[in-house]
Amino acid sequence: MPRTLEFDPDHALQKAMTYFWLHGYEGTHMRDLANYMGISKSSFYNTYGDKHQVYISALNAYMEREYAELNKLLQTDPPPDLLLPALFFNASARGSTEVSDQGSFLVNAAVERAPHDPETRAVIGDHFQRFADLLTEYFSRKQSAGIIADTFRPRLHAHALISNLYSLGVLARLNLGLQAREDVIEAAMVIYQQTA
Q1: Structure pTM?
Q2: Which domains does the chain have, with CATH numbers?
């Protein structure tokens, strides 16, 4: 008979996400991570495997949350002039108080781990394409309806928009202040309004 877990694996994984977000992969030690998650080292290994496996699981959980937020927003079929502010607001506000000055967990992972870790690079690349697919389909639909100009390039603008969104995480990590992020949002909004 399988042994019943004495902790919530999903909750513990969220704790792991926060710890990696705060300390990075290289700055995370197994004993400290397990303690922060509130589980023993044996429970950690039995449930999640090793440090790298739980890191990938935490990163996937973070990206699935981002994807679900975008998908939910797009299902409401907002007009473009309301979609963009909502996206920028969500990107700027994402993160708990504990990690709000740490930027985007995904961006941090892309900088720290992706150049050296093929699995991290692959899962982030897949997430980027899934994100781009959602936005491209949305822009194409609005273009077919005559809401967006024929000169608008859905895939190109989807990629550019994602880059703008994640740049907010970089600015947050650099602690350049709220004004810097607001400037990026304002400039991006002007560009999209002119091209749409």
Answers
A1: 0.84
A2: 60-195 (1.10.357.10)
